[in-house]
Amino acid sequence: MRREWLFSLIPLMIGVVFLPLGVYGLRRARTIRRSGVTARARIVRHDVRRDDDGATYHHPVAAWTTADGQECEHASRLGRGRVRAGFGVGAAVLVRYDPRAPRRFEIQGWDAPTVDRVFTAVGSLLTGGTLIVLLVRVLTL
Predict the structure, then answer these.
(1) Range 86-92, long-range pairs (CB < 8 A, 24+ positions)
(2) Buried (b) or exposed (e) across 46-84, using 16+ Cβ within 10 A?
(3) What is the per-residue pLDDT across 53-84, written as a single tens digit (0 to 9) for each?
(4) DSSP assigned state of 66
(5) SS3 for 72?
(6) Which of 114, 128, 123, 107 is nearest to 26 (CA)?
(7) The pTM is what?
């Protein structure tokens, strides 16, 4: 086997990074969906972040009071390129949060597991596909 097999490590490494990130996000969303508490919240501002390419992402910051009276104000982990209708500053929204750790929450209608599903699928395909290719190459030497 020559050096070409080293190029197989690139998709393998990408898959090994994407897969756990996607699984973590899906498990987090499932936990919030199963044992989370729903509360009424308000969007108080948007944290605007720019990436290295200059793209802008808006992360709405929701403020709510937990069932035990704790005041919470946290930014959504999911940023979008523009603010969708109904999620502007001052908008009333519903959040679902983990009562043990209110920082883990989702804004209903904004946060969606789609990104986590894509990461899981891409990570699975890259990891599994690369491992199959490497196994076939090793066995056919």
Answers:
(1) 87/43, 87/60, 88/43, 89/43, 89/44, 89/45, 89/46, 90/42, 90/43, 91/42, 91/43, 92/40, 92/41, 92/42
(2) beeeeeeeeeeebbbbbebeeeeeeebebbbebbeeebe
(3) 889 999 999 999 999 999 999 999 888 888 88
(4) -
(5) strand
(6) 114
(7) 0.74
